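Students often ask what a 'structure token' actually looks like in practice. Rather than answer in the abstract, let us consider O-succinylbenzoic acid--CoA ligase, a protein of 372 residues. Its sequence is given first.
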Amino acid sequence: MKKSPYKVHPDFKLNGTHFNAKELYSVAYSYIKEGNEFEEQVGNFLLDWFNEDYETIKLRTSGSTGTPKVYYIEKEKMIASALASDKFFKLKNKTKALMCMPANYIAGRMMLVRALTLGWDLRIIQPTTHPLDSIFEEFDFCAMTPLQLSYSLERLHFVKKIIVGGGTVSHSLVQLIQGLPTKIYEVYGMTETISHVAARRLNPKSGLSSENGESLKPFKAMPKINFGTDDRGCLTISSDRILDETLVTNDLVELINPQEFYWKGRIDNVVNTGGVKVFPETIERKLENLITDAFFASSLPDEKLGERLILVVQEKHSEEYLSDLRSAVQACETLDKFEVPKDIYLIEKFAYTPTGKINRKLTLTELTAKLA
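Now compare that with the structural description of the same chain:
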């Protein structure tokens, strides 16, 4: 094996055992040859990481906001991102970390890079919706999706610090984690930004001053990250550390200053109904306590309004359920006049991305085909 320029921190451990770069090469081949699908993903990443012929890592987006895309990210920028996480979250060497995310997407891969770079004691386990069910020892740090967090509430005492990403954290979930000793942060980021570039504490010591979570502080930038907005009101991200040029997103935000913002929703999800712009994500937050099934707000073309606001719910068709839901939504006092859906549709099974997010676009396409 050629000597790799990407060194392994001397304190690094994988599943409790110290490994250097040469030894990790052997581990990687073993994972690929004999391991399960998750271990094979880890093995493939390790081989790519230590291959000095390639200065980049191939990453694929999940496709939750459009067609999946492929990016080639410089390894040095991934290391820079790991160092920024260290400063922001104070994750020193010998941090005992749990990896329960797939290793073929940015979140899982950055857990590996952080461990290798910062000298963590990393334990990797098969990604599931209940990641802490088999855990009976204490960890310093873990990254989860909102779904994984929701299924781990009774066992969060095993982890001191958790970052949550890959989807919006509901207000109801925010309420459930108040008062817990575990420090839980919601992170903002994407493949293009090499994981998170901002974070905010979801369960501050002082607690929340309102029941719907609106008292949460804004997202705060990682070190050497600057935010702005374009003429649409969408977030722009600048950083010499991880970006070659300013990244323009499709995320509508309320910018507080160059280091802080509140996230409002995706501009490609905004519904323009009768000349009034409505944010589906805002409607979803207001309805989440009424609807226990998976759902989302969207629109269909309308001759008079341009776009007609609709609600799509993952549920078998039932006229009784539909009638009760219509009544509950109509009676929801937090919805503004233009936020009340004109129609509600039931679909037995939504389309999902490989990372478990609702694929709104594909689900809506399937609904449109059924209505045609």
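One point worth highlighting: The chain has nine helices and 20 strands. Ask yourself how you might have guessed this from the sequence alone, and why that guess would often be unreliable.
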